[in-house]
Amino acid sequence: MLPAIEAQGRPAADGIFIGPLVVLDSVTTERQNSGDPAAEQVALESAITHAIADIAVLAEKADAEASEILGFQIAMLEDEALRSPALLEIIRGAAADKAWSKALDAEIVGYELSDDDYFRARAADLKDIRDRVLRNLAGFSSQATAGGVVLAGEDVPPSLFLEADWSKGGAIALSGGSPSSHVAMLARARGVPMVVGLGSIDFTGRSEAAIDGAAGLVVLDPAEVTRAPNGKAALKC
Amino acid sequence: MTDWISADVLITHAVGLHARPSVKLTKLAKTFPCEVQISGTADGPWIDAKSIVKVMAMKARQNTLLYIRGQGDAAPVAVAALKDLVAHDFGEVADHVASD
């Protein structure tokens, strides 16, 4: 087991939790270009339609705040203006997934360059939409996780947060992210401890994490954690 | 070609024309048959008020004077309705008061 390391980030949601670490992979989809623009166009339109339907199902089960966040994602996906640059790329011979990524990445950069925290945080919603459609194009469905774990990665998409079962507890530790993100709002509402901005933290080979949301503190493979019977822990490193 | 019907209104919502207000504004705009456009200046560039992608891309913040114009069937009603939505904080009055 690797020695414990402590990392300081920014607090996003209060609370303390210790549990197994689940590192989220970025979507790496390889899909064959059919070479037929008409077929690629149908593939993209169908992936978007399925994404809208899946998010709508999620929204039905969600509370008011979560369903408004998902409503925003649906409205973006339904807007012709979001997909039209991708459809244009497809006519020029691009594969559906490459064309969609390129179109969405251009939108995402626009948000990431904003000097306003709120608008910058919307980049996470656009990435969520992008990756959901890419997963549909590649033919695999969601990354839904069991509860009771520490979700770690560069960022956690809002729809993944809503698909996870938080009734068994859990926490979120992100190298990127933002306290203004939709996931941070949801985490605060649900009492899920969350730390963002951990920067160069390396989750590789780590199996457990302890989180103090209010302090913005994360300890990987904690050695000296006082475990309480309820699964919560007092952090000491 | 009929003339554009225009109005302007101050965005008072605490975080500006963000996700939820943009959803409400575009949904309302889509209920009208006419063209409805918005801009951050009186001279444009004008963007389609029915496209959330374009409305969000404006990144209009609190205290931005929003210009609204419409042309075609029911344009005066559409412009008045959009102005009313923005003037009343997109129906998020409680949020706004809490953040004051």
Characterization of the model:
The complex is a heterodimer of chains A (237) and B (100). Chain A contains eight helices and ten strands. By secondary structure, chain A is of the alpha/beta class. In chain A, the strands form two sheets. An eight-stranded mixed sheet of chain A has the order 1-8-7-3-4-5-6-2. Chain A has a two-stranded antiparallel sheet with strand order 9-10. In chain A, helix 1 crosses helix 6. The longest helix of chain A is centred in the first third of the chain and has 25 residues, at 37-61. The mean pLDDT of chain A is 87. Chain B has 100 residues and is α+β, with helices and mostly antiparallel strands. Chain B contains four helices and four strands; from the N terminus they run βαββαβαα. Chain B has a four-stranded antiparallel sheet, covered by helices on one side. In chain B, a hairpin with a 7-residue loop joins strand 2 and strand 3. The longest helix of chain B is centred in the last third of the chain and has 13 residues, at 75-87. Chain B is globular. The termini of chain B are far apart. Chains A and B meet through helix 2 and helix 3 of A and helix 1 and helix 2 of B.
Question: What labels describe this entry?
Answer:
heterodimer, A: 237 residues, alpha/beta, 8-stranded mixed beta sheet, two-stranded antiparallel ribbon, 44% helix, B: 100 residues, alpha+beta, 38% helix, disordered C terminus
State the helix count of chain B. Answer: 4
Strand content of chain B: 15-25%
What percent strand of chain A? 15-25%
Shape type of chain A:
elongated
How many helices of chain A? The count is: 8
Structural class, from secondary structure content of chain A? alpha/beta
Note poorly predicted spans of chain A: none
- C-alpha end-to-end distance of chain A: 16 Å
Order of helices and strands of chain A: EEEHHHHHHEHEHEEEEE
Task: Kindly report the greatest chain-chain contact and the residue count on each side.
Answer: A-B, 19 and 18 residues
- Residue-averaged pLDDT of chain A, rounded? 87
